[in-house]
């Protein structure tokens, strides 16, 4: 039967999350690119991963072509494993050769995953903002070299243009 008929005292269900239209970047708040740089330096790169993770969640809310949660989780796990193994290698003296090689390979793989993630984010951001041929378009070269700094700058540029 109907849930209301079964229990008239049950609270009604409602979707409380604000739904954003495609192309609407109001889910993003303006955040200083200098702050992103400073926090990334202070946290030794951890904030960059956090920034990309949190912004990916926001972008997935407004994009019809979402970045896979499996890919995001795999990239974060690889990054954390790389950080942990790097710490272990720095304290272990015996057998450090094999661990160093594994750490190097893991570092390379996690770096590639991070760059691929940044490009996936860039592609979705360009598609959502429909900024082809506009100054707010995210280019591939600066995305490769500056990653989250450049992406944050472009999000801020889109927010400023909207306002």
Layout of helices and strands:
Elements lengths: L2 H4 L26 H10 L3 H17 L6 H23 L4 H34 L10 H7 L1 H15 L1
Would you write up a description of this structure?
InterPro entries: DUF4234. Residues 32-126 form the DUF4234 domain. Pfam families: DUF4234. This protein is mainly alpha-helical and 163 residues long. It has one domain. It is 67% helix and 0% strand. The chain has 7 helices and no strands. The protein has helices at residues 3-6, 33-42, 46-62, 69-91, 96-129, 140-146, 148-162. The protein is globular, with a radius of gyration of 20 Å. The termini are far apart. The model has no long low-confidence stretch (mean pLDDT 89).
Tags for this entry?
67% helix; 163 residues
Sum up the overall morphology in one term.
globular
Helix content: 55-70%
- Count of structural domains: 1
SSE-based structural type: mainly alpha
The percent range for strand residues is: under 5%
Overall pLDDT, averaged? 89
Q: Which blocks of ≥5 consecutive residues have pLDDT under 50?
A: none
Distance, first to last CA: 50 Å
C-alpha Rg (nearest Å) = 20 Å
Secondary structure tally, helices: 7
Report the count of strand segments.
0
Short account of what is shown:
The chain has 163 residues and is mainly alpha-helical. It has helices at residues 3-6, 33-42, 46-62, 69-91, 96-129, 140-146, 148-162. This is DUF4234 domain-containing protein.
């Amino acid at each position: 039967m109907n849930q209301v008929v079964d229990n008239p005292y049950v609270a009604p269900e409602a979707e409380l999350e604000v739904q954003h239209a495609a192309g609407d970047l109001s889910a993003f708040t303006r955040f200083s690119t200098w702050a992103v740089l400073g926090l990334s330096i202070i946290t030794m790169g951890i904030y960059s991963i956090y920034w990309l993770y949190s912004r990916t969640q926001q972008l997935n809310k407004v994009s019809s072509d979402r970045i896979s949660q499996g890919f995001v989780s795999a990239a974060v796990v690889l990054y954390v494993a790389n950080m942990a193994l790097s710490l272990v290698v720095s304290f272990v003296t015996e057998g450090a050769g094999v661990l160093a090689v594994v750490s190097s390979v893991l570092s390379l793989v996690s770096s590639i995953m991070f760059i691929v993630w940044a490009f996936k984010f860039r592609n979705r951001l360009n598609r959502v903002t429909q900024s082809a041929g506009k100054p707010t378009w995210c280019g591939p070269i600066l995305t490769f070299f500056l990653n989250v700094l450049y992406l944050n700058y472009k999000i801020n540029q889109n927010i400023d243009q909207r306002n």
